[in-house]
Amino acid sequence: xxxxxxxxPYVNGDLFSEALRIPAFDxxxxxxxxxxxxxxxxxxxxxxxxxxxxxxxxxxxRRAKGAHYTTEKNILKVIxxxxxxxxxxxxxxxxxxxxxxxxxxxxxxDKLAGLNLFDPACGCGNFLIIAYRELRxxxxxxxxxxxxxxxxxxxxxxxxxxxxxxxxxxxxxxxxARIAExxxxxxxxxxxxxxxxxxxKVFARIPLKAAPNIRHADALETDWADVLAPERCxxxxxxxxxxxxxxxxxxQRAQVRRIAALGKSGGTLDFVAAWFIKAGxxxxxxxxxxxxxxxxSITQGExxxxxxxxxxxxxxLEIDFAHRTFAWGSDARGKAHVHVVVIGLSRRQDERPSKRxxxxxxxxxxxxxxxxxxxxxxxxxxxxxxxxxxxxKEESRPLGxxxxxxxxxxxxxxxxxxxxxxxxxxxxxxxxxxAPFMRPFVGAEEYINGGDRSILFLRDAGPEQxxxxxxxxxxxxxxxxxxLDSPSAGTRALADFPTxxxxxxxxxxxxxxxxxxxxxxxxxxxxxxxxxxxxxxxxVFVLQDAKVWRFSLVTSAMHxxxxxxxxxxxxxxxxxxxxxVYNPFPWPQISNSDRTNLDAxxxxxxxxxxxxxxxxxxxxxxxxxxxxxxxKAHRALDLAVDRLYRKEPFADDRERVEHLFRLYEQMTAxxxxxxxxxxxxxxxxxxxxxTAAGS
Length: 695
Known about the structure:
By secondary structure, the chain is of the alpha/beta class. The protein has 24 helices and 22 strands. The strands form five sheets. Strands 3-2-1-4-5-7-6-8-9 form a nine-stranded mixed sheet, with helices on both faces.
């Protein structure tokens, strides 16, 4: 080489394995390069590359790929309970030994050097980078304990044994995969400098002999064992992509269904679930532990009954630790776009006896830790359950004697029958004869936040009436065409009846309205009565002939705790469901005197609302401005409903849902036992077109 170039140390380490064209510099570029070379880069974490990369990604592309930058604080929420806390505790114990201390510390350093970490959705490598930094920092503490006075009997280059080749990853895009590799070397250099400062000797790994193993590939189409042999793996970790079931591409949906193998229905799993299932397959021949970030959709709602039996039963996994729902700082500014959980898993034979659970009173704050012997997939204490793997399945009818709740009217009209206020006024100005068929139309948005929508309800309109109203007839024809063009056979069949709704629920007396979606900020979903002729939309649920005491049960803190923990979410909002929230709910046994008491307490809530005329429910139930009289009425009601379940007060929602879950287990166990019993009765012979059946 040229003598000037030969003064630089040889690097290697595959960093320059590909030929790179040397750029043609001008003076401006040279000045810029010298300027950045003068910056103190050692104070900058290489993890910042993840934020930089995300900031230049197209927002639509980022959403499609489910890419979310992970802050260092949130990475530590995964790696600390996964392995770092245990390693630090082990080091603290060994450091205080009186006998065999040096040998134990050297064996511990060898243990650190023998760990292999794997991130199968590594992006720009932030999890690997921070994990490497923390392991190197712990190793430095070990070396300081071995050489307390900084006196080294070894060459500095022989000091550190933890190296970048212990870190493995898969990334679907090449550019972030290369960033991950480079950032790992940068972190290696930073930690080498830190070690040099600690001992006053230069520690450098040049030429580089080891390299991180970052595979540019689709993790869902790759055999993870080709990247890292399962028996060599110590920990699987990371932040797999968040892509909801409804916004997945066809290719993504096909991948999830193939990996989950749930049968004909295919399931409705989010994209992230595929990484959990692949991890379960990987752990079949490994003693590794897993720590993943996930959207909280896999710990509540319909996905729980789809995913967790696969993890528990097919792969024999257990939950070792978990962070309950918290707000995710997903970009460089820490702005939260999603609510997530962290879940740690291990094989059943390797599970820890004490499970760590981190809970958040403030979703943007710090957690409170508790310890349990078992955790439910809903991320609460399962030690009181006979089956810690119990999941809530959708029920087609209430488990108890509660009345049936139905969905509101669903027109499937393409909006032709629905009018905002201005549209309605303009329509009736040109077609005044349509006024008798125009009815108020209320969904969750209108009920909670106010609004003025109407719908054409033509069930009682005869052919001649419709023909005499040209503007109405035009809308009927438009609905018929829309339904005929539908890919759904059921909708096409409905085209023969264009004046009918797909679902028709038109009560003729006051009915209880339960909004399908409500803000997660509210302590209570605003529930109440609607008076005809208002028609409920399919975005609310309807309970007809409801008494005030039934309203009291549905609006209570007990029922709300079930909704928050078992029901699904729409983004971060609570999503009420008949099949998961109302029907499986363990209703209490109540006497006539209990009903009378609940009638009075429920009416007090309704009266407190009426004391603020003209105020929207959204405002009344805003936790920042909720009126004191309304809050007081709800608390009195909550206390009375709580006492129907047990005498001792509940400390919080988590205690409530744990109690309810034990009741649910008892109720469903009874149903299963009855279902398993052979039916009694006479048997009739099969007749024409029939089969033998119990009478």
